[in-house]
Amino acid sequence: xxxxxxxxxxxxxxxxxxxxxxxxxxxxxxxxxxxxxxxxxxxxxxxxxxxxxxxxxxxxxxxxxxxxxxxxxxxxxxxxxxxxxxxxxxxxxxxxx
Length: 97
What we know:
The protein has helices spanning 4-19, 26-33, 37-49, 92-96; strands spanning 53-54, 65-66. By secondary structure, the chain is mostly helical. It has a two-stranded antiparallel ribbon with strand order 1-2. The protein is elongated, with a radius of gyration of 21 Å. The N and C termini lie far apart (46 Å). The mean pLDDT is 87.
């Protein structure tokens, strides 16, 4: 499961690649995320370890290959299901309120 920051970096990478036809530089990632270079590099390393991106030549972010642009469905937290609501007859509004 990705942290919020790692998910944010992944979405920025994906949106840049699809919208601008290029990947953002490290400086652009620091500007977009509001974090420093060590935090950005740690997030990119975590994305490589989780196999969301492939990044062999680490000299530049232009060499990043995005393997998955979204978090995997199996890793998303599940919300508990709420019980179905019981519908009352139409007169309940007028008689109870």
